Amino acid sequence: MSTLTTSELEERLNDLCAAIAADEEVSNARAQAEAFLADESAVSLYRRMAQTQQELHHKQHGGEKITDAEINAFTLLRDQAEANPLVKQFNDAQETLQGIANMVNGFVTKTLEKGRVPTQEEVFGASSGSCGTGCGCH
User: Fold this and answer.
1) DSSP state at residue 115
2) Would you list the DSSP string of 62-97?
3) How far is Cα of residue 6 from the mean position of the Cα atoms in its chain?
């Protein structure tokens, strides 16, 4: 087994990062996220929905009763967010980028555990092979 020096490993990591940054799927996801972030009304809607969801979650886990009015207000915000194309694109972009990050992390972690390059099955399980769309693993 060959041993890499720290500078060789850093060079290969830079190559991996360059490949990820140059990937069309990554570029498209980043563009979708940036378009969302540039639209103040979409960001504000998303934040209000997320904040309301968090407040209801804390209230529920604190044993407090959530009123019908609170549920209806959240449902309205969620429906508005789901109907907003920029919010949908942002959610899709997050899913894509997180899938790629999970794939990279999974392979690196399993490589450190095994001391060799792992197979897809070792990283994602025997039944997965491909984890579906949006993850970048296929």
Assistant:
1) S
2) TTPPPPHHHHHHHHHHHHHHHH-HHHHHHHHHHHHH
3) 29
Total residue length of the chain: 138
- Specify the residue for token string 């959530």: 66
Rounded to 10 degrees, the C-alpha dihedral 121/127/130/133 comes to -140
pLDDT in tens, 12-43: 999 999 999 999 999 999 999 999 999 999 99
What is the chain's Cα-based Rg? Answer: 20
Give residue 24's Cα distance to chain centre: 16
Neighbours of 81 (CB within 10 A): 20
Q: Retrieve residue 115's tokens.
A: 């001391």
Cβ(100)–Cβ(66) below 8 Å: no
pLDDT at 135 over 70: no
CA distance 39 to 89: 12
Distances in whole angstroms, Cα of residue 128 to Cα of each of 55, 70, 75, 132: 36, 40, 34, 9
